[in-house]
Amino acid sequence: MLTATGILVLVVLFFAIVVLFSTIKIVPQGYNYTVENFGRYTRTLTPGLNVIMPFVERVGRKLNMMEQVLDVPTQEVITRDNASVAADGVAFYQVLDAAAAAYEVSGLENAILNLVMTNLRSVMGSMDLDDLLSNRDAISEKILRVVDQAASSWGIKITRIEIKDINPPKNLVDSMARQMMAEREKRAEILEAEGSRNAAILRAEGEKQSQILQAEGRRDAAYREAEGRERLAEAEATATRLVSEAIAAGDVQAINYFVAQKYTEALGKIASAPNQRVVLMPLEASSLIGSIAGIAEIARATFGEAEPNAPGPAQPAATRKGGAGRRSAVPTFPTAGGEA
């Protein structure tokens, strides 16, 4: 059975334990505790082992100093062009001053949430729908600037505000889809028209270059043809001049050769005419053979005078003197002197 001394020892031990726990405070990393002296804020306890005065001081608020995330519920917003959209987001904040966050505002998270939602509706309501859908970063930056400035007196820092979803009504989405399709079709038609125009320009340029090259080719061909005719005329004029000189020199064989050549060319043209099918030759046309033989006689006579010792060809049997009053079997052609 416990004596009075034992009971006193137990009471003192219990009191010591209570005092010990009331005096020593261990603050975990990432948290700050506020200390109140008879209900008035006096100081802030940082992470680690801390000692307070028992029965006089106590821990007031325990604040998380790490960055925290706050979901912003969906908000119905009417834009400047009277379009109704639903938007939601997320906010990131961090407590920098534990005392201000604990004693400057009541319900810190609720205050931040209401501040973000109010500015979200305000900023998005001042914009058109097209700008709202295409400028999320600008919206987030504008809301962040306004909310951070308003919450700076609460000892917190708004680090980021992100817009998660912007949902227009279904009929508005369908209208936007039709508008997008029309815009893309218009751009496709414009591109197709530009492609057709460029192709037509290239084809015209190609035809132009082709016509230029054809004209240059025809010009060169005409130039060469004229040059050929000129040279042929010069050659003919030279041949005529040489024949005339030979005639003037008294060479009758030259005019015989000239007449035989023209005669032969005329018969050749008659025979090769495309509109001729049956050619009636006069009896005198048989003298063409004589013309050819006459050309051969001229050649033999010429070469025979140049090489008198060269052995001559054997005389055909028809040209040998077989009797008086008989003509040669080879016809002759008229000469300039009228001899046959």
TrEMBL record:
Task: Give the record's GO biological process terms.
Answer: proteolysis
Provide the taxonomic classification: Bacteria, Pseudomonadati, Pseudomonadota, Alphaproteobacteria, Hyphomicrobiales
Localization: Membrane
User: Segment Disordered: which positions?
Assistant: 305-340
- State one molecular function term (GO): peptidase activity
Listed name of the protein: Regulator of protease activity HflC (Stomatin/prohibitin superfamily)
Residues annotated as domain Band: 22-180
Regions that span the bilayer:
6-24
The entry's family comment says: Belongs to the band 7/mec-2 family.
| Location (main, coarse) | membrane
Which keywords does this Swiss-Prot/TrEMBL entry list? Hydrolase, Membrane, Protease, Transmembrane, Transmembrane helix
GO cellular component, as recorded: plasma membrane; side of membrane
Q: Which CDD domains match?
A: SPFH_paraslipin
Q: How does it sit in the membrane?
A: Single-pass membrane protein
